[in-house]
Amino acid sequence: MLALIDTHHHFYDPQAHYYPWLNDAGFPPHRYGDHAALKRPYLPADYARDTAGVNLLGSVHVEADWDPKDPVGEMRFIASLRQQCDLPSVAIGQAWLHQPDAASTLEQLAAFAFVRGIRQKPRANAAPGGPPGGMTDAAWLQGYARLQPLGLHYELQTPFWHLHEAVRVATDFPDTRIVINHAGMPSDRSEEGLRAWRTALAAVAAQPNVAIKISGIGEAGYRWRPDANRRIVCEVIELFGVDRCMFGSNYPVDSLCAPFQSIFENFATYVADFSAQERAQLFVENARRIYRIPAQRIEQQQG
């Protein structure tokens, strides 16, 4: 069985808690299209069924767009799940860095021993061009400056046409790690779109404090396309190298595209010609290092 640490998944319960994208009628469709199938609880028992075909050594819960008025509440929810089943191994919380209460929120999140960083989707344009995005705001940058002293890193999900702003942030804050989500979001799969995505990604890959997760690379209107996604995976690894890339399922969201095991079997096929050590880095070791997942936890999961 394929051994892995899943660096990007979500637990949520819209029957017990408020998630605008799951609870609000008329919420805009997901980037994959209709996401009605996701509007149900997704808890460790569901994840266990989906991951039954792999040797799961650990996992990273990433904030699931929980009620923005109570970002700390999501980590209390995740703490309760961890007490029940020891998963997720670690988590990424939600914080709105430009808000006046950002300092307090970050301090509360950092107080959870299993929280490793925060994710916020900065203000972005729907298409290339337009005004600067949220990573240029003075208030946002003040919030960002608080991450490293608290031992937190930043998970960035933004369209690739805003990655040039991330280059500036990475340069100005060299001691704060950035982990790019979803392979830099190559949403435009035309040749022109992929060239623009690669150019943007190459610039941010030149920053040594930036790593990337190969996750969430499904396409609206399609099931998983192995050949199309192979190009994405291979180009990301070419740009960042095997020591700064990790794989993630983005489950249950990517259940709209493919079964969990199929996604990781495709990942494994794409890197089948890599050395055993390189494959171990991509599937396990980089995640363990970057997310500071204790080795004993992984050994317990193996047992």
From TrEMBL:
Domain Amidohydrolase-related: 5-293
Coiled-coil residues: none
Alphabetical list of Pfam families matching this protein: Amidohydro_2
Cited InterPro entries: Amidohydro-rel, Metal_Hydrolase, Metallo-dep_Lactonases
Family classification: Belongs to the metallo-dependent hydrolases superfamily.
Listed name of the protein: Amidohydrolase family protein
Organism listed in the record: Ramlibacter alkalitolerans
Lineage: Bacteria, Pseudomonadati, Pseudomonadota, Betaproteobacteria, Burkholderiales
